[in-house]
Amino acid sequence: MSNSPAGLRSDSRTDLASPSGNGLFAVKAMLKRAVGTLLSSNVKDILRILGVAPTALSVPALSANYIYDFRQFLKWSAVGDRLDTQTKLRAVITMDYHRIEKGLALREPKIGFGRDVIQRLLTNLKRYQTAYGLDETCQIAINTLTAYYQFNQTHGIDDQPLNVAIAALNQAIASDRPRTNQGGIAHVTKQSILNAAAIDFATFTQSRYSIRQFAPDPVELHLIEQAVIMAQKTPSVCNRQSARVYVFSDDEAKRKALSFQNGNRGFGDQASKVLVVVSDLNHFVAIGERYQAWIDGGMFAMSLVYALHSLGLGTCCLNWSVERWADRSLKRATGIKESETVIMMIAVGHLPDELTVAQSPRKPLSEVMLVR
Question: Domains of the chain: which residue ranges?
Answer without folding.
Answer: 23-76, 86-172, 194-350
